[in-house]
Amino acid sequence: MSSDADAIRNWWHTSIIDMEPGRIAFRGHPIETLIGKISFPQMIWLMTAGRLPSSEEAVLLEAALVAGVDHGPQAPSIAAARMTATCGVGLNNAMATGVNMLGDVHGGAGEQCAELYYDIAARMDAGDALEAAVETGLDAWRAVNGKIVSGFGHRFHKPVDPRAPRLMALVREAAQAGTVDGQFAEIGEAVQANLSLRKPIAMNIDGATAVIFCELGFAAPLSRGLFCLSRSVGILAHAWEQMEQGGRNKGPMPPSYFPKYDDT
């Protein structure tokens, strides 16, 4: 029977960090061997995936993180962080408010798109050709999620989301160099082609970053977590800018405007 000390030690168990007074190691790497030696994207990879990536893999991850940092105050997460910053709280509170806005509708498209890509890849592994796997995969997606396919189309950026082509070009370069195999780039482009049969529709940033996260082997739920890391940079910047600008209790619209009252 375990002693009380063992029960306490075993309450949490982790392979991420080994820490005791005077020693810190992440995934078996002493912290002093990492500081100044690896990049922040490499550290993110080590912590989430359990190994150090190659510099080429880290460059591709970094590109996805850079592309998603901000989309302006019209994005609910950014607007919420700016409003929070006028309420007399700290930067951490404003950042937490913004990150907590990143849900299934605003912030979850990358995870959803990655799930679609992985489903299509599984159908290909089972013997379907690319086009057939895309068709049946999209049918299955729509049966559960409706007609909107996450990762494609954009309410502002028409006909092209300027971030997606650049990211896809980097994936193609990485595939040519052997850093990734390019399967999910082909899947993403095939989904876009299928969706464009009726009306042209472009891949957006969520579709492109999902390609990258899948190419690099990250599980679909991590796509959302990695996006949250990326967008938290923009949330921080906007919250800090709002603090510098000042303002008190700023709401979602100027005080001279009032919501429409429905007289029922």
Short description:
This protein has 264 residues and is mainly alpha-helical. It has helices at residues 4-9, 31-34, 40-49, 55-67, 76-85, 91-99, 109-125, 130-145, 163-176, 183-195, 205-215, 220-245; strands at residues 17-20, 23-26, 29-30.
Explain what the structure shows.
The chain has 264 residues and is mostly helical. It folds into two domains: 1-37, no CATH class; 40-250, Cytochrome P450-Terp, domain 2 (Cytochrome p450-Terp, domain 2), CATH 1.10.230. Helix 4 (55-67) runs antiparallel to helix 9 (163-176). The termini are far apart. The mean pLDDT is 93. It is globular and about 60 Å long. It has a three-stranded antiparallel sheet. Strand 2 (23-26) and strand 3 form a beta hairpin. It is built from twelve helices and three strands. One of its GO terms (biological process) is carbohydrate metabolic process. This is citrate synthase (unknown stereospecificity). One of its GO terms (cellular component) is cytosol.
